[in-house]
Input
Amino acid sequence: MNYFKKAVVKQAALTAVLFLTAPQFVQAGVFNPETFTLKNGMQVVVISNHRAPIVRHMVWYKVGAADEPRGKSGIAHFFEHLMFKKTKTLKSGEFSKIVARNGGRDNAFTSHDYTGYHQSISVDRLETVMKLEADRMRNLIFEDNQIEPERQVVLEERRSRTDNSPGAKLGEQMNAAMFLNYPYHDPVIGWEHEIRGLTKADLKKFYDKWYRPNNAILVVAGDITAKQLRPLAEKIYGVIPAGKPSKRLRTEEPPHNAAIRVTLRDRRVRQPSIRRRYLAPSLQFGESKHVYPLEVLAQVFGGGTTSTLYRSLVVKQNLAVSAGAFYDGDNMGPSSFGFFASPRPGVSIEDLEAALDKEITLLLENGVTASNVARAKNTMLAEAIYARDSVGGGARVIGSALAAGQTIADVEEWPERIGKVTAEQLNQAAKAVLIEKNSITGLLLPKKRNGS
Amino acid sequence: MSKSFIAILSAALILIAAQAAVAIEIKEVTSGKGIKAWLVEDHTNPIITVNIAFRGGSALDPVGKEGLANLISATLDEGAGDIKSQEFQQKLEDLAISLSFNSRLDSFSGSMRTLKKNQVTAFNLLRLALTKPRFDSEPVERIRSQIIANIRRQSENPRRIARRTLFTKLFPGHPYGRPSNGTEESVQIIKLADLRFFVAQRFARDNLVVSVVGDITAADLKQQLDQTFGALPEKASPWDVPEISPDDKKQTIVVDKAIPQSIITFAQPGIKRDHPDFFPAYVMNYVLGGGGFESRLYEEVREKRGLAYSAYSYLAPLDHAGIIIGGAGTANARTGETVKVLRDEWSKMNKSGLTQTELKDAKTYLTGSYPLRFSSSGRIARMITAIQLEKLGLSYIKKRNGYIEAVTLEDVNRVAAKLLDPAKITMVIVGQPKGVTSTPQ
Output
């Protein structure tokens, strides 16, 4: 139902992708895609999977909420909604209707780093959806009577995702507090007053700047080969003129000098929780050598019911009902290494935080064992084989990597790179990242009663 | 460029989606001990996916011990046989086997996924979980506290409040009206003996269905079936969930919560899966509120008026009752208007039914998109489990599009006229809605 199922809360969305990314055991490659580039600069990737006579067709644009002009937060996502409206050849809403009449499904999503549009459809209807997608790349028509109702829809979406949920509001506040200057500061869906202020001219300008074939990637996964796709891609997308290249200019994040605390109290919170995040490198930001060790660290220390953190806080000490760690190094910009926990009844949030801090200190002092690292790597690498099972899974993984500025090799060599990670590298990465002044702690708490 | 597009796109409009074949073949495998499974062999990747289900679900939780089936679903993988909780979890983790259980109102299901090379261990862990769960007190208490924490967290989630309230109103005094995950109090008083009793009574061969997809042959699976399920008792203890007609007294209940967006959820009596009118009702619902971006509710509530991010309806056929559920979320100030649009669409469908074009479009979508459901092993396994639970037969997947094609405009409009009735809607609104009158309780 939703236009962007993924990505409003970037961190949460990408944690899931981390597991999907997880490629295979020993043999080279994960999805073994084929790729070529059209004359107008549009990259094409094909991931063959012949389990059913269906395809997932995706067009990714290398633009996300972090590329928005200042004061125009939410425009990337708002614009994504408008892509389902009127074009020179189609009436508003007709895009999805045609897809449905051909037995297909369609949707789209926006994150901080990219925007994606996709359809799943029988392979003999691929050409139809390619033509539709190519049409709206350049032929969109902007009219007030389209924009205004959709603005209300986006505001409802914001209420539904964020304003109705204390946990989501805390997440939004934490992002805003954590990123001092990098555009991850602003929520993907936008601040309400800025969503209200977006104009037709803003939207048109955004479209003309970013929606160009040379800023797009076509990914098709399913019952097709590159040889079969190429002539269609050349005929349908290859004829769209390239635009002036647009550089993604992002303000840099300065060094952090003070730990931050954010507390959200709400009458509706009945189960408190704590989140802690440390500013961390990504493949394209900061000390990228720590990325793969941090991925393994998140698994060893906080990835599931056998992790160090769960065993200690939940099983042994009976302090928490849940505890874990998360990390994702696929962002274009800075990332964060995070922890979460929620107390058992009768345990105060202060005691839980102290216990979490102690575990982090122990990790820094004692490090991780080589055997735990080997186990975690083994688990992560097995996920690779599972990742190849579904028809469309690879399209999402490869598309998001490329649209955020990575390469196919970054995805395909993932198993190899994870395989090489050592316990010593984990310990170095932990020391480099888990630094108090780079941290933010978010508390979700019930509202205090009057007088207390 | 745009000119040629007009021509091409108009052509696309009149295409009728070809009957894209669902390219899977299901075999029924029967083991030496007579245990049956449906198998979809696929040797592309070295993966095996198993989905099982026992008929009888959380509706069978004893009164006052609501949440029993749910607690069991979360503790079966916390130690079994000689293997204690953490050791069991570690084995799953080390071998990258995923094993999980889930309770629903009418069934209790499990799913297991493993790499081919760990097949024997994986099936063995599944066997142990089903036949020799330990229920040691440490993991049970830990999971119990997690479930209670989750109940607390959900207790202020507007969507959950709306749904819970709706089911309480629709099914007063019936198991379907009780909270399937339990309450803080009911989960607290469930004893270890209750867990053991449930397993002994409910997990048996005569209420079991098994679905397997992936890298395993029929001969190999036969062995695994006997080894894995052979130790289950032959018969589950008999059970009885009474048939119930959902309440249809046109109530509107407002649950006051200080949130900016009102969550509207509603339902009225529907039909069960085995009703001869199921397919006409299914097609009708697609047009009303089932189709993603194509339905009338989507068009009227979201597209034209911008009242909500989502507006939907769906058939919810249970084993002992049928309902049609709908909903939307809108700013408090616009709730009255949204409710009116929803009710008007309900009436309009009831009075006028579908147009010939809507019927044709619904059919091309519903038949053409059916193969999309077979996109991963997990989805295939879940789907063939559902087909087995509903007793639709081995050839259902091949016949299903024919059932859709056979629906006539007369059928669907007769069903719309008979079934849909705004005067039978029970509606729950969570928030601080304007323009809505709640029914005195």
